[in-house]
Amino acid sequence: MSGPEIHRGSCRCGHVTFEVSGQVPPVTICHCSQCRNWSGHIFAAAPVPRAALRLTREDGLAWFQSSDHARRGFCRDCGASLFWSGAGEAHIAVAGGAFDGPTGSRVGRHIFTEYAGDYYTPAAPPPLRAPRGGPLEGRCLCGGVAFTLPGPARSVTACHCVQCRKLSGHFSASFDADEAALTYRARATLAEFATPDGGTRGHCRDCGSSLWFRARDGSFAVEAGAIRGATGGQMESHIFVSEKGDYYEIADGLPQHAAW
Ligand SMILES: [Zn+2]
Ligand SMILES: [Zn+2]
Ligand SMILES: [Zn+2]
Question: What is the edge-to-edge ordering of all strands in the sheet holding 70-75?
Protein backbone atom coordinates (compact mmCIF):
# COMPACT_ATOMS: atom_id res chain seq x y z
CA MET A 1 0.00 0.00 0.00
CA SER A 2 1.42 3.38 -0.94
CA GLY A 3 0.81 6.59 0.95
CA PRO A 4 -0.52 9.85 -0.47
CA GLU A 5 1.52 11.46 -3.25
CA ILE A 6 4.15 13.92 -2.02
CA HIS A 7 5.31 16.95 -3.99
CA ARG A 8 8.58 18.48 -2.80
CA GLY A 9 9.60 22.06 -3.33
CA SER A 10 12.32 24.52 -2.38
CA CYS A 11 13.72 27.97 -2.87
CA ARG A 12 16.75 28.43 -5.14
CA CYS A 13 19.40 28.23 -2.41
CA GLY A 14 17.77 25.41 -0.45
CA HIS A 15 17.32 27.28 2.83
CA VAL A 16 13.57 26.74 2.56
CA THR A 17 12.20 23.31 1.63
CA PHE A 18 8.71 21.90 1.90
CA GLU A 19 6.43 19.01 1.06
CA VAL A 20 2.84 19.10 -0.13
CA SER A 21 0.88 15.91 0.41
CA GLY A 22 -1.87 14.99 -2.00
CA GLN A 23 -2.66 16.54 -5.38
CA VAL A 24 -1.48 20.04 -6.22
CA PRO A 25 -4.69 22.08 -6.70
CA PRO A 26 -5.20 24.16 -9.89
CA VAL A 27 -2.91 27.19 -9.98
CA THR A 28 -4.19 30.77 -9.84
CA ILE A 29 -2.19 33.38 -11.75
CA CYS A 30 -2.41 36.85 -10.25
CA HIS A 31 -1.68 40.02 -12.25
CA CYS A 32 -2.21 42.53 -9.42
CA SER A 33 0.44 45.21 -9.00
CA GLN A 34 1.61 43.77 -5.65
CA CYS A 35 2.17 40.30 -7.10
CA ARG A 36 3.98 41.76 -10.11
CA ASN A 37 6.15 43.95 -7.93
CA TRP A 38 6.98 41.07 -5.61
CA SER A 39 7.63 38.27 -8.11
CA GLY A 40 9.13 40.43 -10.84
CA HIS A 41 6.40 39.48 -13.34
CA ILE A 42 3.20 37.65 -12.42
CA PHE A 43 2.68 35.33 -9.47
CA ALA A 44 1.26 31.82 -9.87
CA ALA A 45 0.32 29.73 -6.87
CA ALA A 46 -1.73 26.71 -5.88
CA PRO A 47 -4.08 27.01 -2.87
CA VAL A 48 -2.94 24.09 -0.72
CA PRO A 49 -4.83 23.12 2.45
CA ARG A 50 -2.66 24.29 5.38
CA ALA A 51 -2.54 20.79 6.84
CA ALA A 52 -1.11 19.45 3.56
CA LEU A 53 1.92 21.76 3.63
CA ARG A 54 4.90 20.71 5.75
CA LEU A 55 8.01 22.87 5.99
CA THR A 56 11.07 20.61 6.04
CA ARG A 57 13.64 23.41 6.27
CA GLU A 58 12.82 27.03 7.10
CA ASP A 59 15.91 28.85 8.32
CA GLY A 60 15.76 31.11 5.22
CA LEU A 61 12.02 31.75 5.48
CA ALA A 62 10.84 35.31 6.14
CA TRP A 63 7.37 36.84 5.97
CA PHE A 64 6.36 40.26 4.72
CA GLN A 65 2.98 41.70 5.76
CA SER A 66 1.86 43.01 2.37
CA SER A 67 -1.63 44.12 3.45
CA ASP A 68 -3.92 43.99 6.49
CA HIS A 69 -5.12 40.65 5.21
CA ALA A 70 -2.10 38.91 3.75
CA ARG A 71 1.53 37.92 4.30
CA ARG A 72 4.02 36.82 1.68
CA GLY A 73 6.63 34.16 2.48
CA PHE A 74 10.01 34.26 0.77
CA CYS A 75 13.61 33.18 1.23
CA ARG A 76 15.63 36.07 2.59
CA ASP A 77 18.86 34.43 1.38
CA CYS A 78 18.05 33.91 -2.32
CA GLY A 79 14.89 36.03 -2.65
CA ALA A 80 12.64 33.25 -3.92
CA SER A 81 8.90 34.08 -3.81
CA LEU A 82 7.27 31.08 -2.14
CA PHE A 83 3.98 31.54 -0.28
CA TRP A 84 0.97 33.84 -0.03
CA SER A 85 -1.05 33.49 3.15
CA GLY A 86 -4.41 35.17 3.77
CA ALA A 87 -5.44 35.74 7.39
CA GLY A 88 -7.99 33.18 8.55
CA GLU A 89 -7.94 31.24 5.29
CA ALA A 90 -7.88 27.44 5.31
CA HIS A 91 -5.46 27.39 2.38
CA ILE A 92 -1.99 28.74 1.78
CA ALA A 93 -0.95 29.62 -1.76
CA VAL A 94 2.27 27.82 -2.80
CA ALA A 95 4.24 29.15 -5.78
CA GLY A 96 4.06 26.95 -8.87
CA GLY A 97 7.70 27.64 -9.65
CA ALA A 98 8.85 26.39 -6.25
CA PHE A 99 7.99 22.75 -6.92
CA ASP A 100 11.03 20.59 -7.66
CA GLY A 101 9.36 18.19 -10.07
CA PRO A 102 6.17 17.90 -12.10
CA THR A 103 3.14 19.23 -10.25
CA GLY A 104 0.48 17.35 -12.22
CA SER A 105 -1.49 20.57 -11.96
CA ARG A 106 -2.74 23.18 -14.44
CA VAL A 107 -3.78 26.80 -14.47
CA GLY A 108 -7.24 27.18 -12.99
CA ARG A 109 -7.76 30.90 -13.51
CA HIS A 110 -6.22 34.31 -14.00
CA ILE A 111 -7.20 37.06 -11.56
CA PHE A 112 -6.82 40.86 -11.52
CA THR A 113 -6.03 40.84 -15.25
CA GLU A 114 -7.24 44.46 -15.39
CA TYR A 115 -4.02 45.33 -13.52
CA ALA A 116 -1.71 43.52 -15.97
CA GLY A 117 1.52 45.32 -16.85
CA ASP A 118 1.83 47.23 -20.13
CA TYR A 119 4.47 44.85 -21.50
CA TYR A 120 2.36 41.69 -21.92
CA THR A 121 -1.15 40.36 -22.26
CA PRO A 122 -2.02 37.02 -20.70
CA ALA A 123 -3.14 35.18 -23.83
CA ALA A 124 -2.13 37.22 -26.88
CA PRO A 125 0.91 39.09 -28.19
CA PRO A 126 1.20 42.43 -26.42
CA PRO A 127 -0.29 45.35 -28.34
CA LEU A 128 2.11 47.46 -30.36
CA ARG A 129 2.68 50.80 -28.73
CA ALA A 130 4.80 53.78 -29.53
CA PRO A 131 7.89 53.58 -27.29
CA ARG A 132 7.48 55.92 -24.39
CA GLY A 133 10.50 57.82 -23.16
CA GLY A 134 11.25 59.26 -19.76
CA PRO A 135 12.86 57.68 -16.72
CA LEU A 136 11.56 54.45 -15.19
CA GLU A 137 10.95 54.22 -11.45
CA GLY A 138 11.68 50.85 -9.88
CA ARG A 139 11.17 49.73 -6.31
CA CYS A 140 10.49 46.76 -4.09
CA LEU A 141 7.19 46.20 -2.34
CA CYS A 142 8.32 47.63 1.03
CA GLY A 143 10.24 50.60 -0.42
CA GLY A 144 13.59 49.60 1.11
CA VAL A 145 15.02 49.55 -2.41
CA ALA A 146 14.09 52.21 -4.96
CA PHE A 147 15.88 53.20 -8.15
CA THR A 148 15.59 55.22 -11.33
CA LEU A 149 16.84 54.26 -14.78
CA PRO A 150 16.39 55.62 -18.30
CA GLY A 151 13.31 54.38 -20.18
CA PRO A 152 11.65 52.95 -22.10
CA ALA A 153 12.20 49.27 -21.32
CA ARG A 154 11.76 48.21 -24.98
CA SER A 155 12.31 44.47 -25.44
CA VAL A 156 11.15 42.24 -22.56
CA THR A 157 12.20 38.57 -22.48
CA ALA A 158 10.36 35.88 -20.54
CA CYS A 159 12.65 33.20 -19.10
CA HIS A 160 11.37 29.77 -18.05
CA CYS A 161 14.66 28.34 -16.78
CA VAL A 162 14.56 26.51 -13.45
CA GLN A 163 16.47 29.30 -11.73
CA CYS A 164 14.05 32.01 -12.89
CA ARG A 165 11.09 29.83 -11.99
CA LYS A 166 12.42 29.18 -8.48
CA LEU A 167 13.23 32.84 -7.81
CA SER A 168 10.09 34.43 -9.28
CA GLY A 169 7.66 31.71 -8.24
CA HIS A 170 6.44 31.31 -11.84
CA PHE A 171 8.72 32.59 -14.66
CA SER A 172 10.64 35.81 -15.11
CA ALA A 173 10.20 38.77 -17.46
CA SER A 174 13.07 41.22 -17.72
CA PHE A 175 14.66 43.81 -19.99
CA ASP A 176 18.30 44.70 -20.62
CA ALA A 177 19.50 47.87 -18.96
CA ASP A 178 22.75 49.76 -18.48
CA GLU A 179 23.66 49.18 -14.84
CA ALA A 180 25.88 52.29 -14.81
CA ALA A 181 22.80 54.39 -15.66
CA LEU A 182 20.79 53.02 -12.73
CA THR A 183 20.61 55.33 -9.70
CA TYR A 184 19.50 54.08 -6.30
CA ARG A 185 17.24 56.36 -4.27
CA ALA A 186 17.15 53.75 -1.48
CA ARG A 187 19.08 50.51 -1.09
CA ALA A 188 19.20 49.76 2.64
CA THR A 189 17.54 46.38 2.21
CA LEU A 190 19.17 45.34 -1.08
CA ALA A 191 20.52 41.79 -0.94
CA GLU A 192 22.57 40.05 -3.61
CA PHE A 193 22.41 36.31 -4.20
CA ALA A 194 25.30 34.70 -6.08
CA THR A 195 23.84 32.16 -8.48
CA PRO A 196 25.78 28.94 -9.11
CA ASP A 197 26.50 29.97 -12.72
CA GLY A 198 28.43 33.05 -11.66
CA GLY A 199 25.59 35.57 -11.91
CA THR A 200 24.11 37.79 -9.22
CA ARG A 201 20.47 38.31 -8.44
CA GLY A 202 19.24 41.41 -6.59
CA HIS A 203 16.28 41.24 -4.24
CA CYS A 204 14.95 42.95 -1.12
CA ARG A 205 15.77 41.06 2.05
CA ASP A 206 12.80 42.59 3.91
CA CYS A 207 9.98 41.96 1.43
CA GLY A 208 11.49 39.45 -1.03
CA SER A 209 10.82 41.46 -4.18
CA SER A 210 12.82 40.37 -7.25
CA LEU A 211 14.67 43.35 -8.73
CA TRP A 212 17.42 42.56 -11.22
CA PHE A 213 19.90 40.01 -12.58
CA ARG A 214 23.56 40.54 -13.45
CA ALA A 215 25.10 37.81 -15.61
CA ARG A 216 28.68 36.62 -15.19
CA ASP A 217 29.70 38.70 -18.24
CA GLY A 218 28.34 41.84 -16.57
CA SER A 219 25.20 42.19 -18.68
CA PHE A 220 22.35 43.47 -16.56
CA ALA A 221 18.57 42.96 -16.73
CA VAL A 222 15.80 44.53 -14.65
CA GLU A 223 12.65 42.61 -13.69
CA ALA A 224 9.75 44.19 -15.58
CA GLY A 225 7.47 43.84 -12.55
CA ALA A 226 9.81 46.01 -10.45
CA ILE A 227 8.88 49.06 -12.53
CA ARG A 228 6.08 51.24 -11.24
CA GLY A 229 3.56 52.16 -13.92
CA ALA A 230 4.23 51.79 -17.62
CA THR A 231 7.54 50.26 -18.66
CA GLY A 232 7.32 51.29 -22.31
CA GLY A 233 8.41 47.73 -23.06
CA GLN A 234 6.96 44.76 -24.90
CA MET A 235 7.45 41.09 -24.30
CA GLU A 236 9.00 39.69 -27.46
CA SER A 237 10.01 36.10 -26.79
CA HIS A 238 10.15 33.18 -24.37
CA ILE A 239 13.49 31.49 -23.63
CA PHE A 240 14.45 28.22 -21.92
CA VAL A 241 10.98 26.84 -22.59
CA SER A 242 12.57 23.36 -22.38
CA GLU A 243 12.66 23.95 -18.58
CA LYS A 244 9.11 25.29 -18.37
CA GLY A 245 6.83 24.17 -15.54
CA ASP A 246 4.28 21.46 -16.34
CA TYR A 247 1.24 23.36 -15.02
CA TYR A 248 1.02 26.15 -17.63
CA GLU A 249 1.05 26.62 -21.39
CA ILE A 250 2.51 29.59 -23.24
CA ALA A 251 -0.44 30.94 -25.19
CA ASP A 252 0.53 34.44 -26.26
CA GLY A 253 1.77 33.49 -29.74
CA LEU A 254 5.26 34.94 -29.21
CA PRO A 255 8.39 33.08 -30.43
CA GLN A 256 9.60 30.32 -28.11
CA HIS A 257 13.18 29.12 -27.83
CA ALA A 258 14.23 25.85 -26.18
CA ALA A 259 17.31 27.61 -24.76
CA TRP A 260 18.12 31.19 -25.74
ZN1 LIG B 1 16.71 30.43 -0.65
ZN1 LIG C 1 11.46 45.56 0.06
ZN1 LIG D 1 16.11 32.29 -16.57
Answer: 61-65, 70-75, 81-86, 91-95, 43-49, 27-30, 107-111
